[in-house]
Amino acid sequence: MPRSNGNFRALSMTAAFATAALLIQTAAGNAWSLEEAAAPYKGVTIRTIGEALPPLEAMSALAPEFEERTGIKVEIEMYEHSEAVSKVMLDLNSRRGRYDFIIQPHRELGKFVTNGNVQPVDAFLESPELRDPEFKPEEQLYQGLWKEISWYDQKAFGFPFTALSMYMWYRSDLLTDEKEKEGFKAKYGYELAPAKNWDEYRDIAEWFTRAEEGLYGTALQGKRHEALWYEWLNFLYSFGGDMLEANSGSECGPVIVNSPQAIAATEYYKSLKEFSPPDTLNYFWDDVMALMQQGTVTQLIMWNDATYAVAVDESVSTVVGKMGFDMVPEGEGGRVAQAEGWTYLIPTASKNKEAAYLFIQWMMDYDQQLRQHLNGGATARPDVYASPEVQELPYAKASMAANEVAKPKPTLPQSAQMTDILVRELSSFLADEKTAKEALHRSAQEISALLGSCAPMKYPVE
Amino acid sequence: MSSQRISRIAPRESATLHREHVPDKPLQRPRGRFLLDRGASLPLILPATILVLIFLVGPFGYMTYTAMTDLSYANPDQNGAFVGLDNFRHLVRNDPIFWHSFWLTIRFVLVAVGLEFVFGFAIAWLIWRFVERQRLLTTLFLVPMMLAPVAVGLIWRLLLQGDFGMVTHYLHKVGLLSQSSAVFSSPSLVMPTIIAIDVWQWTPFVTLIILAGLMSLPKPPFEAATMDGAGPWRQFVDILLPLLRPIIALVLLLRAIDAFKEFDKVFILTGGGPGTISELLSIYAYRVNFKNWDLGYGAAVAFMVYLVVLIMCSVFYKAVYWKSAGAAGR
Q1: In a domain, B77, yes or no
Q2: Residue A83 to residue B148: CA distance in whole angstroms
Q3: Which of A79-88, A277-286, B70-79 has the lowest mean pLDDT?
Q4: Rounded to a whole number, what is the distance in angstroms from the first to the last CA of chain A?
Q5: Which of A38, A380, B14, B24 has the most CB within a 10 Å radius?
Q6: Listed residue (A106, A98, A105) closest to A77, CA to CA
Q7: Measured between CB atoms, does B29 come within 8 Å of chain A?
């Protein structure tokens, strides 16, 4: 009995301590408020820059709410992809501190980090004044994507603005049309359905190419532009190829961009040119998105952050309700997708780092992420994907599936140069200046020379 | 001209001439000249000199210095160490893309400026000979020239867009372009199209300058030649062309310099592609500097552009000066 009394006392004590701890924690949690945290920065103006696409437009629509609550003014500069990148590069290197936080493609991260242009976020996350106790990125974000998009060398430098990937867009109305299905089966011997592999993808592209009707089987982003490289990566990964033999984006490794798989992927990629509109060598992502909106293309590989403008926004698209989305067809490399994303970063030269952090943290909150996602964003929060509103979006499943198998790409300081080399060589191949083998061998040689001893050529050129 | 003429006269003859022109009173310098020589010119030219130093000489010096460093924003190991002439050595010996772009630019300049000159001269001559209200027509001709190159690029990009471009539509209709091709996706058509657009934009400039030259020609030599029985062709070759030579040289020089630096239109229309088909030297310099952020090497490329323009200016200048001196000597 005394023993049981002792047990009871010990239990009561433990319960009392636990309750007290919980109360203290809750009180501390309740004590934090955005308004109070932002009070020292009231009247400050923070400026940012990013790519002029729906996710940033959605952020721009949300910003006034933050301004009202905090008194911190948010100025957002929107530019075309390349311009948003080069403007930031100039600002960071001039150390002017024009931007208090920046939104940049993650492949630029290595360059920023090694040049000391951006700072880790630990200091903010450890600050009780700044950190919202409800903000738990280590639990609330897709960890793989966060680490790929916003980390470098085992350190967090920001949070994902968008977790992007590319997947297959197709015209579900055409692919389910009875007449089309009948004709397709008669010609190819199997049922017409969204392509599961590259042979099917090619057959569908061929079947629906009817130039006289203004309809094409696909549309390649063949312009000499980053878009070409991004699109080609889907083929490369799916065929089992890669650029470097490395486990993460910040790792260097042997160059394998001229592997037999890469050559096969590149040749296949070009074979689709004949099912693309005539001006395909002059297209980048905006052009193919416009073609899809106009209903002149049956299927293509495109970005998730452009999906909203085609599948949901009736004011700009003629194919709302007629679209379907699925992962990139399967090749020898399995069903894969590419990890890409834009990340929030705080420059070391920023004059209002704390205010910038507060805005980023507020934007990463569930409510803002949900609203941004529903208006064209691409969140890195799984709980947002799980919400019923998001599940209703026609592209939600494809986005989630792609996020789960997304492969990293180099974020080394030289990544922009690697991209430029590949864009040039792939464009030369599409323009019949070179064969796939010549273009990829040349790329491999240049990339190996660029990266130095950490990147020998696994497939030496004879 | 007169000083050269005098210098060709024998010294004795020259002395006589000099004596004949010596006035009774000693020569008085004009007051303004006196002030200039006493240093009053300094405040007058100082502002312009400072501006030139700040905006031209300074940046050029900095560019030249950067070209001798390994500065790169992309590679943290290249933090601007002095490398002497390494960048130039690599550019000249080991950079096939640079040489491809260089020769492409030279071909572009020769063909585009050549066509602009031929068309511009022909139009100016026709206006001079046959049109009464020359000013009105000239104003209309100037429209393409007054557009910003970026605007020209955007206009033609839309007109030649492969799916809905108006010009493409008519080219398809009349059969000049096959239905399955588009101008900027057909490697063989890209450069001719860019040249055609440049000719469209800059022929009016050549027309304007040549027309101004034609309108300022003196009439007596033509009247004398007519009286001597010289036909229109002889007058054109022996009087009009020699008199217009400085104007022609000027217009060719200005256009060649401008065409050598061509960037905006090509960047908007093709971005240098497909492949490297339209990668002019300026586009290449842009890529090295602002895509790869290899600023040391990029400065070396920019320096080479400057060097070529300098050589071009010098050759033109010498050609004109030599011809003028020759004409004076005759």
Answers
A1: no
A2: 19
A3: B70-79
A4: 88
A5: A380
A6: A98
A7: no
Q: Dihedral angle at the C-alpha atoms of B36, B37, B38, B43, nearest 10 degrees?
A: 40
Six-digit token string for B176:
């000049």
Closest by alpha carbon to A402, among A237, A289, A193? A237
Q: How far apart (Å, rounded) are the C-alpha atoms in residues A360 and A66?
A: 10
CA–CA gap between residue A264 and residue A199 (Å, rounded)? 13
Whether residue B274 lies within 8 A of chain A, CB to CB, comes out as: yes
pLDDT at A416: 87
Q: Are residue B198 and residue B320 in the same domain, yes or no?
A: yes
Give me the pLDDT at residue B309, please: 87
**HSE-up (13 A, CA, CB side) for residue B325:** 9
* Least Cα separation, residue A175 to chain B (angstroms): 24
Decide which of B46, B66, B86 is a domain's last residue: B66
Domains of chain A: 36-164+340-393 (3.40.190.10), 166-338+411-454 (3.40.190.10)
Cα A367 to the center of its chain, rounded Å: 20
Does A275 contact B at CB distance below 8 Å? no
Q: Which of B76, B276, B277 sits opposite A413 (nearest CB)?
A: B76
Q: Which of A351, A346, A355, A348 is nearest to A41 (CA)?
A: A355
Please give the mean pLDDT across all residues of chain A. 91
Report helix, strand and coil shares of chain A as percent, to nearest 5. Answer: 55, 15, 30
Q: Where does the pLDDT of residue B136 fall: very low under 50, low under 70, confident under 90, or very high at 90 and above?
A: confident
Q: What is the mean pLDDT of residues B205-227?
A: 92
Output the domain CATH number for residue B231: 1.10.3720.10
Q: pLDDT digit string (tens) for A26-75? A: 444 458 999 999 999 999 999 999 999 889 999 999 999 999 999 999 99
Query: How far apart, in whole angstroms, are the C-alpha atoms of residue A450 and residue A461?
Result: 16
Give A286's contacts (C-beta < 8 A, 6+ positions apart).
Answer: none
The H or E element containing residue A46 is strand A45-51
Helix, strand, or coil here: A331?
strand
The amino acid occupying position A46 is I
Q: Smallest CA–CA separation between B180 and chain A, in Å? A: 5
Residue B142: half-sphere exposure toward Cβ, Cα within 13 Å: 10
What ipTM does this complex have? 0.80
Helix (H, G, I), strand (E, B), or coil: what is residue B11? Answer: helix
**What whole-number distance in Å separates Cα of residue B196 and Cα of residue B53?**
38
Name the pairing type of β-strands A299-303 and A102-105: unpaired
- Decide if B275 and A222 are in contact by the 8 Å CB cutoff: no
A387: its two tokens: 């919400």
Question: Cα(A226)–Cα(A284) distance, rounded to whole angstroms?
Answer: 8
Q: What whole-number distance in Å separates Cα of residue B115 and Cα of residue B101?
A: 21
Phi, psi of A152 (to 5 degrees): -145, 130
**DSSP three-state, residue B8:** coil
Please identify among residues 49-88 of chain B the ones whose CB lies closer than 8 Å to any CB of chain A. 73-76
Structural domain that includes position B180: 95-329
* Residue B90 lies inside a defined structural domain of this protein: no
pLDDT digits (tens, 9 = 90+) for A142-196: 988 899 899 998 899 999 999 989 999 999 999 999 999 999 999 999 999 999 9
